[in-house]
Specification:
With about 180 residues, the chain is an alpha/beta fold. The chain has one domain: Rossmann fold, CATH 3.40.50.410. The strands form 2 sheets. Strands 3-4-5 form a 3-stranded parallel β-sheet, with helices on both faces. It has a two-stranded antiparallel ribbon with strand order 1-2. Strand 1 and strand 2 form a beta hairpin. The radius of gyration is 15 Å and the shape is globular.
Length: about 180
């Protein structure tokens, strides 16, 4: 996704700006030279430094199973069963390709994590930028109703992030990004 760095960074920042300062967020990158990188882990949005173009540097690796497994086990699982009924969990996955470099989670393990999260009411949204990505969502057990295919263009990314905004219950549009 090297060709869309600006759009990804701008859209992630717009999503962060649309959230309440007390909302908690985690951001994991999974297409960079270090596998899965936790850019932000369970922090209030008000304290999160906005992404800069140099923070996100995709280089062709897609440890998709590791990213999904880590997001669910490290980020989402601790919120399951929280006593605050106003809390909800959502995992947003944006991928332009198929799994090719996971070292921690197998497909079966990642699929099991997805199943556990869905059973607990966690919303998982998968945005695929290419035909292989949509097949990966199905293999992971992510419901087809939560899988959206978008074009590998700036407008495709805008479409994906507009849907993220709607998924978060925010009506704000990202048309300006």
């Amino acid at each position: 996704m090297e060709f869309v760095v600006k759009e990804v960074v701008d859209n992630v920042n717009a999503v962060l700006d649309s959230l309440q300062p007390s909302d908690r967020v985690s951001i994991l990158f999974f297409e960079d030279p270090y596998g899965v990188v936790r850019y932000v882990e369970d922090q209030p949005v008000g304290s999160v430094q906005r992404l800069r173009y140099g923070d996100y540097f995709p280089l062709g690796g897609t440890p998709l199973y590791d990213a999904v497994g880590i997001a669910i086990s490290d980020v989402v699982a601790p919120t399951i069963g929280a006593t605050n009924n106003s809390q909800f969990g959502i995992v947003i996955v944006l991928s332009d390709g198929e799994e090719n470099s996971s070292m921690i989670y197998s497909l079966g393990e990642a699929r099991q994590a997805v199943s556990m999260a869905l059973t607990q009411g966690i919303d998982i949204r998968f945005y695929g930028m290419g035909p292989a990505a949509a097949g990966e969502a199905a293999a992971l057990g992510i419901p087809i109703s939560n899988t959206i295919q978008v074009s590998q263009t700036a407008s495709g990314l805008d479409e994906a992030f507009d849907d993220v905004q709607r998924s978060l219950g925010r009506a704000d549009s990202l048309e300006s990004c």
